[in-house]
Amino acid sequence: MLKTFPKGGIHPPENKITSSKGIKKMTLPKVVYVPISQHIGIPAEIVVGVKDKVTIGQVIAKSGGFMSSNIHSPVAGTVTKLDKIIDTSGYKKQCIVIRTDLKDESNFTDIAYPLKTTITLEPKAILQKINDLGIVGLGGATFPSHVKLSIKEGTKLDHLIINGVECEPYLTADHRLMLEKAEEIIVGIKILMFALHIDKAIIGIENNKADAIETFKKIITKNDNIKIAALKVKYPQGGEKQLVRALLNREVPKNGLPLDVGVIVHNVGTIFAIYQAIQHNIPLIERVVTVTGKKLENPSNYWVKIGTPITDLVNEVGGLPEGTRKIVNGGPMMGKAIKNTDVPVTKGTSGILVISEDEASRGEPKNCIRCGECVDVCPMGLEPHLLMNLSEKGMYEKASSEDIMTCIECGSCSYVCPSHRPLLDYIRFGKNIVKKMNTSKN
Amino acid sequence: MSTQPIIVSASPHVHSDRTSKKLMYDVVIALIPAFLVSVYVFGISALIVTSVAIISCILFEYLIQKYLLKADVTITDGSALITGILLAFNLPSSLPIWMIIIGSLVAIGVAKLSFGGLGFNIFNPALVGRVFLLISFPIQMTSWPTAFVNNTNVVDAVTGATSLGIIKEGLNMGETMTEISSRIPSSIDMLFGFTGGSLGEMSALALILGGLYLILRKVISWHIPVTLLATIFVVTAIFWVANPEHYANPLIHLLTGGAILSAFFMATDLVTSPMTKKGMVIFAIGIGIITVVIRLFGAYPEGISFAILIMNAFVPLINKFFKPRRFGAKIKSKIV
Question: Which NCBIfam families match (chain A) (predicted)?
């Protein structure tokens, strides 16, 4: 029996059409738009001015505090503007616009460093470097990694969990990365194990990526203390709490963190970024993005510079097909629909999904028939129908006591609702108000 | 670039292909075997009762929504169709047509639409219609044409009590179960449908077939039917073991009356049953116990309709007290 989390979850069609497409280098963008807020927390502070020449990897915005992250120039070029543009959030955000210097060789040098397995830095220096080189969680939440790794004295940690689940349909960025950079990822894991003094690590991978599981199994040795765990395919297994439950049978307490049960979870993409930073001194200026959609001419996976306009990505795969009605930044379950492709790729962009006419619209909402499907599939043990009702009627106190804030917004409830009710929309709305209520109370 | 505007909506951007309409029509499909048996047993009158119930349920829904409520007409969602079929299944095949029409009006007008329509009703509409008729027209509602195997030529002319009715009457007159058992059909006959009773409760086998289809299609879960039937079996078995001459054996209780029909199709009504599996089990145990109490000690030979309606009233409470366990609410695992 394959491991999985016990309560709730769904299995939408996987549609991993790009899983056999190797990661290609994306054509160098002529202009990059680098938002200064690509992570959860305080935006970074701009340290360059218009007309400044920047080199590749130069810090262009400095971390604005502990809960923040440095931002580096993804290209060598000239800063042309400091402007507010609409990013993937749908809001205008401060961006540094850099025109790529097409004559600068460093933009074209393909950095293919040889694998470096010896760890030379001390734990403290490792954590400092992760902070300096702008590493944030690449799984989607873009939580600054150094914050996650700053563990209070006396915290008992016994497992490092590597999230290679990629449970979102369509997305294959992590899958390809695991196939192509397996050895680097293993070194990255060892770096973290060393830095955090953890002696056990588990890589959790869903069973639909059997080739990735095999690849890792071939290269790990017994002394590594790294286990590869095949998981049953079930969404949202990539959620931290679900993954910890599936792998270790430990339940992160309500409103708690994996840290509370002795675990720290990192995405494979983040681990690779950490490897690059520690072993080769490369800041986070590039990531893997899956550009996909059923009607796309040539969907594939790409190494993309942060700040690349999504238009460039779409052109790379043959342009938007006729009848495109929706463009999603991320996967179909949790990704954000964007209004147009002028939006840049950020550290949190794992995929671009292009949806055509037939699948773009939602069904007409009908009366709730109280079938209980939403309750069945909720991985957090909530009652989505009730939370929606409470939010709709403005009963936020009650919604709060029904644990609305523990919702992870996986969307399983909306996905299964046979009456097409906008469950998650109302729950998000209710969460926002409850959050405001809670902050004004404090 | 397409000319049509890009849609921006919140996640998720995909949806399963299940719709409430599909669920409803799955229920209709599941009812077909039992319907065919009823036509086989009762002939044209089964067809008439069922069509009248269906047509009047749909028509009343249309008329009330269009002219009284001035709201959207929802007759195509399949729910009125199911109410019609289920109401018919709970009626004797000899019931006058005008009574069926009254039953339909009560089911749709009172039990469903006055509560706010599909999803808002507390009580199972078909059962409210049935119980209304039972209380208003007790004689017609308990005159059951007996199955044709006993009366090959004149189907509708002969009426008799149901097996449960025979047992209740016999016990009231001081007979023992051994004496009564010669007058009720064998368990095998009950399984295949050659017994007296309402339209839909004829063949346990056909009903189980439909019920299994619903479970396989994940329209209903096994919790309500299995718990309900197990409760009836266990409780009646206790009485039977204590005094087999005074109480019918549990198999008779399972196979006669509306036990199987109710377990798979009436108690499992999505709208009027609890939301969680835990709640469903409590709900079904409640129905089972009340049913047996009415059957053994009440005035009516059969009480499952009342039992379901009574437990329907408890569903909001059950939903309130039997919530799913919140993730991380109580830590089971220990840190090693």
Answer: PRK05035.1 (NF003454), rnfC (TIGR01945)
Instruction: Give me the sign of the Cα torsion angle A139, A206, B217, B226.
Output: negative
Tokens of B36: 């065919």
Look up the domain containing B185 and give its range. 162-195+217-321
Between chains, do B11 and A337 touch, taking CB under 8 Å as contact? yes
Better pLDDT: A166 or B249: A166
pLDDT of residue B333: 46
Using CB atoms within 10 Å of the CB of residue A196, give its burial: 0 to 12 exposed, 13 to 18 middle, 19+ buried: middle
- Rounded to whole angstroms, the Cα distance separating A149 from A140 reads 17
Give the total number of structural domains in chain A.
2
Q: What pTM was estimated for this model as a whole?
A: 0.90
Cα separation, B321 vs A280, in Å, equals: 57
Pairing of strands A201-206, A23-25: unpaired
Tell me the pLDDT of chain B averaged across its residues.
Answer: 87
Query: Chain B, 169-188: which have a CB under 8 Å from a chain A CB?
Result: none
Task: Enumerate the β-bridge partners of residue A24.
Answer: A302
Q: Which of A118-127, A198-207, A225-234, B46-55 has the lowest mean pLDDT?
A: A118-127
* Nearest CA-CA distance, residue B245 and chain A, Å: 43
Are the C-beta atoms of residues A381 and A408 closer than 8 Å to each other?
no
Residue B140: both structure tokens together: 């017609």
Range of the domain at A396: 373-441
Please, is A156 exposed, middle or buried when counting C-beta atoms within 10 Å of its C-beta (0-12, 13-18, 19+)?
A: exposed
pLDDT of residue A234 exceeding 80, the answer is: yes
Number of domains forming the structure of chain B: 2
Q: Beta strands A77-86 and A53-54: pairing type?
A: antiparallel
Q: Which structure tokens are listed for A26? A: 């994306």
